[in-house]
Amino acid sequence: MQGLSDWWDDVELWLSSAPFLVQFALVMAVLLPLCVVVAWLIDRVVDYASARFGHAPEETPLGSRSSTDADS
Questions:
Q1: Does 45 or 56 have the greater pLDDT score?
Q2: Phi/psi of residue 67, nearest 5 degrees
């Protein structure tokens, strides 16, 4: 565990001493995809929960409808 802690301290020191543009690019490269995935997961969970526990439980969640179901 000490090796992991030492490695993390080295990465943190490198990142904090890097120029701002490098820091910004790295944060965007990691956080932007992560936030998109988390937002998509939250949307799916809320969609399924609202379809299951809403006033009309016979409706299927929006994400699972086929194109023919949406047309009717």
A1: 45
A2: -65, -30
Q: Cβ–Cβ contacts within 10 Å for residue 31, how many?
A: 10
Q: DSSP string of 2-27?
A: HHHHHHHHHHHHHHHHS-HHHHHHHH
Q: Domain spans of the chain? A: 20-53
Using one digit for the tens of pLDDT, what is the confidence trace for 11-53?
889 889 999 999 999 989 999 999 999 999 999 999 998 888 8
- At a CB cut-off of 8 Å and minimum separation 6, what does 51 contact? 57, 59, 60, 61, 62
